[in-house]
Amino acid sequence: MSSSPAPPGIPSTATDPELLRAFEPVVRFTSGEQFFPMDVERYVRSCSLWLYHPDDHDEQVIPEGALTMENLTEPRWASFGSVLYLRFIRPLSIEESARALASLQRLKRNQKYGFRTGLGRLARGGLVPRLVDALFSATLLLRGRVPKATAAAAAVDYAAMQEGGEKYVYHGRVVRQGGWTICQYWFFFAYNNWRSGFHGVNDHESDWELVNIYLYEQDRRLVPEWVAYASHDFHGADLRRRWDDRSDLALEGLHPVVHAGAGSHASYFTPGEYQAEVPLPIPERIRQAMEALARFWSRTLGQAGDRQSPFRAPFIDFARGDGLSVGPGQEQEWTPDSIDEKTPWVTAYRGLWGLYAQDPISGENAPAGPMYNRDGSPRPSWFDPLGFAELDKLPPPPLELELLETECATLVARQEELDCLIAREAETLQQLGIRLESMEGNPHLAAQHEKLGKQVAELAARVKALRREHSENEGVLDGMTRRLERLRAGRRDDPRSHIRHAAEPVPPAHMRFSRAAEIWAAASLSLLLIGLVALIEFAPEDAWAGVVILLIALVLGESILRATFVRTVNRVAVILALVATVILLVHFWKPVLFGALIALAAFLILQRVREFRA
Amino acid sequence: MTTQSEQTGAPSEKPKRPSSVTFVAVLAVGYAVYSLVYGILAVQSGDEDRLADGILHLVLAPGALTAGVGAFWLRPWAWALFMTWAVIGLTNQILRSLFFEDPDYLDMAINTFAVLALSPLEVQIAFGVRHTENVQLSRATRNPLDRH
Hints:
The structure holds two protein chains of two kinds. Chain A has three domains: 379 residues, no CATH class; 92 residues; 88 residues, no CATH class. In chain A, 46% of the residues lie in helices and 16% in strands. Chain A contains 18 helices and 17 strands. In chain A, the strands form four sheets. In chain A, strands 1, 6, 7, 8, 9, 10 and 17 form a seven-stranded mixed sheet that branches. In chain A, a hairpin with a 2-residue loop joins β6 and β7. Chain A is globular, with a radius of gyration of 33 Å. The N and C termini of chain A lie far apart (81 Å). The relative contact order of chain A is 0.12. Chain B is an all-alpha fold. The longest helix of chain B is centred in the N-terminal third of the chain and has 27 residues. Chain B is globular.
């Protein structure tokens, strides 16, 4: 007799700190990363506290050096529209900015800085995405932004802090909800330098990231079942992977492996380079017009649709996992810090954890703490960690079988009830139907006929609805019964069936372009603008024609370098053919109309002749 | 008994050439013959005004012939050649129509017809420039039973 091996896990008598220790993640950073998870206390001590007033002025509440964890959480009165925020790096003069940038270069040399984007960063997006990227960068001049020197000063300050005592900290919390035990690992970073350090979307002071591990109790053991990482562009069930899903989730013993994005610190299951979709706000009417055009393109013209929106910028999140690794048995180990609803800085401080840059779309504003959103409202990932990964609808595995059996029994009972109901109602319907039929041809029964007709129609609709419910229940019951059999046989569901969109690294073949493509991508927009200027200056009368030729030549030239010539030439040719069709119709509408009418007449005559012959 | 192609689902027949493609190919071959004859006559005439035009036609004739024959055989390069030709021709005629008011409407119509004949997905698949596994046809169902 063989006994099945015990599932992975730890005794359910473990204390919360032991539980957090047992499953703490391994975080692998990208080479070149400058900020790592740290304790909030050291950070707060080097910050000042500020209040932004709605009349657009900032007031220093507590200066740098005087701020402590105690006075941070003191209650403060503030008017509606004001924002309380920490400031890690004070405003820098030009001289200080230059010094910070020079210090960063020295720091990079000392750290043997090892990040290279690799060929193809610019060539990853086409001409339109590059134009959008340029416009997006230009909007930073208008929106609030964190200066680049601030990132440099933050990196230097953080490195100095680490020199004073190297520490890698997570803020752990254990929650029990709906039969699940959830280990939350909150990682705090002094700075997010995705834009300034890694060509990403944004920079902001401070950064919070989250990893959740979901456990259930069985045979007095706490067994891990799901892991969820916070990530860009993904929500709900897409954030979680099952513990036995080896296609995505890497484990080191009981420790899930996280690959952190360089600068952004977003968490990924597998190492690689991820294309981040930044949806740019476009007016609803333009979006609708574009959707209509896309439908015309694919349905009317029979062309292949483009799955990617042109209104995206080619931002990449580098989560290569080739840098420092922090976690059990790694180069650096964690220093845990337990938090809960009684931790003062978690509950009592609702402000931002870094500079409020006054960015209206918030990309450059610092985030709030683990418990709150930027506006001070409660953060769902804190109060509803099950809903965060759409696990609120799933019972823990030991309860699954029992629940499913109960549901099956309920549905079987309903089917039996429906069988009786349908038989009874169908019989009544036939009785009424035959009565209705018998009234036909009797004008004096018109009123009764109409009344009965309505009754019959209502009953027929009810019978149809009951039959539909019965039929749909059959399908549901079939699925539930098969699942029940699988569970009874000890077979588990597909670990990936819940995933709608999985974050997948872009294959290297799609990421790397030739040097020629890279140079072209870097120079093409500028070339286009120079060409426009030259046309306006030297051939103002033919400037419009020149612009069209220039654009078509640029687009086709780029498509050759990006190996998308067939798709591009097809698209350009169809657009030109549509314009030509309009021109031809405008000039030759009479012959076209006559031709169409004559063709229609000939067709009709042919049809009639065929009918005569038949 | 099932054949290997049935088991693997691989197509056992060569793709059928759509009749619109045949028509475009015939047009190209016809244009090649016309260009050749026109070019020879122009060069032989000794008229200096027609010489450059004649040489251009003599250069274009082999290109049109190659594209036409390639289209008969459904070669991918022939499709690319036709579309490139059409892009250049249409750009030229549209710009002439919009900015210089001396377009050749026949040329514009022929190029438009060629593009509309060669661009549908099924034609691209027949030419082998696009593969069925990369294509998601999004035409709505026409079957009334599917809607009830």
